[in-house]
User: Fold this.
Amino acid sequence: MISIACSGFPIPVSTYFQEFEAVEIADTELGLPGTGTLRRWQREAVPSCVFTLLAPKTIASAGFTLDPGTKQTVSAVAGFAKQLKARAVIFAANDELTPTKSHRAQLRAFVEHVSKLIKTPVLDLPGWPKRELTATFKDLNVCLAFDPLLDEPVAKAPFAYARMAGPSGYKSRYDAASLDRVVELCQRSSAKHLFVAFRNIDRYENSKYVMKKLLAASLQPV
Assistant:
């Protein structure tokens, strides 16, 4: 199964759900919306829509420290994800969070706690080399986000999560050759479910390009 999505809604929500069957909810990075918003998303999306969501960025800004405030936020996120029937929750940090000894210990403790509450937690740590990520978390129930233009996904994983942040950040654009490489990844992926979320300024156009290519190759993205 392949899911192609945008992070956030680059076009009006009702129009988005007419064109896509997957979305990475970004509103939740600033705070959890009310029940009315959640019900609206569920009502306007097709029944088979795959939702994922970003955890509030206050968790990463606190260094993933398991203080009472972080635990309360994680519990709230877990409850919201359950109501939304989200496939995964992404815990993202910027590249300033590096694999120091203290960060490794804090993140391991955090993941151990989160995995008891959330079925599929995803870590997106761009400041960590792939080897360091694998060594630190290989024995824990967590999915490691990757950039398919830089890294290879875990072989035969039940769930793989690709996040496309732009070649040089949010305002940068992927060229056709790079997008074709993403299509190639989808075609040869051994994951039972591959989720690809575009996060850059051209995320709508990029997602549509990849979806069109996959459809032409008779691979049905959602």
